[in-house]
Design goal:
Chain lengths: 240, 240
Amino acid sequence: MADDLERFPHPHLTVDVVLLTLRQGALHTLLLRRRAAPFAQQWVLPGGFVRLDETLEAAAARVLAAKPGLADVFLEQLFTFGDVARDPRGRVVSVAYYALVPAAQFGDGSADQRLARVVVPWRDLAGGPVELHDDGDARLPVGFDHEHIVGVAVQRLRGKIDYAPVGFELLPRDFTLLQLLQVHEAVLGTAQNKDSFRRRLLASGQLQPTGRRQRDVGHRPAELFRFRRPRDAKTKKGRK
Amino acid sequence: MADDLERFPHPHLTVDVVLLTLRQGALHTLLLRRRAAPFAQQWVLPGGFVRLDETLEAAAARVLAAKPGLADVFLEQLFTFGDVARDPRGRVVSVAYYALVPAAQFGDGSADQRLARVVVPWRDLAGGPVELHDDGDARLPVGFDHEHIVGVAVQRLRGKIDYAPVGFELLPRDFTLLQLLQVHEAVLGTAQNKDSFRRRLLASGQLQPTGRRQRDVGHRPAELFRFRRPRDAKTKKGRK
DNA sequence: AAAATAGTGTCTGTAAGACAATATAAC
DNA sequence: GTTATATTGTCTTACAGACACTATTTT
């Protein structure tokens, strides 16, 4: 490829991926232990430099696919972080993506890979960095601006879950209405109204009844639903 | 600044700015006539390469400030476009911003600078590229993926105007409720309900009455309002 | 039967849409 | 007075929140 562009030094470009999942009713994100300086031994988001021949989304998918079981998950661009001093090595701009994965679709993993609990110190959509805690509730040391990036991911997810079908991405294929409600509560950080949630979701046409029910639950079993991809709804609206 | 990073070739990084304003009841965006190849003589968004010592937002503000009267306007990151072939010169990733400016705060300008009318060929939030027309309603030839970028800007603005105070950014300091309604209609591309719009906005606490009214309008003059920056509302919520 | 959650029906309050009625400035 | 839009008030409808009641499974 001919490169007519100026050869002056220009910023480096990375992608970082906020992989969000739900464990024990709380949001968790995947962190890796960093080996090299800077921030050696600290925890960071999975990421990598963008190659010349791959799109941004492909770079994010490549970073994800390095972990088992993470092909074909929800993946969306989040925000691009470009503070001048965010990387001590030099000027590195990072395009952040976030991914949603059903509850622990992969093993909690090795000593240098873990799911950290996301502790959100603000309400609603206020925004700001989050804290990342281990299973013993100790705060993990996190490198770069990655606590800030996860904060933006939570903010985006909170703003989106009420009007876009993203809650399903955190659940297995079949789920009950209560499980879906609990996903919304974990994401939004507040209790949700059970009655209107049920009515709203049933009326939305997004739920495909499976005819099956829970088993061995110690109480009346709930009906299992499946997410109905909104193909029918779209064609109804007459786009073609 | 020490640069420990690999010296391999890496993507170039630009910012492009979608400057939106309202003329004759329709959205317009600022385009510049491009002098050099590629896309010479075609129309493109204002943009430029990101320097090593400036943040992304600073780069976007710098591009804007090159035009008279465009300091201190609404400016927000939109999306980062990274298709491999979006720039024929080589790999160029562009962080797009969008700006909102009160009706023609600057002259329509010279032969190589114009406000193009934004024609949106899709409904609601469907998304996709837009067409950019001149005052004679002829479609302008637009370089790069800039019709696509403006499309994302319109999509973002449509999604945001109903719950965030962005309509004000397209109006002069003092305005009437009807003018604000017409801003919403121009952005959303559909007629809006007058009655509930009035009630909703008056109840929102975002409008500061000025006590003054329109003049010389040939009918009963409407009250002039001013946007109330949501400081009071925030302190009420107790964030301090 | 007891426990626990699922699911249904009903009432109420709020807000949007529709529409009627009145107000006020320019001409 | 006529015209044109502003502004207020009322009615209806849709939906969320609240709550009472019934259903169904395991223990």
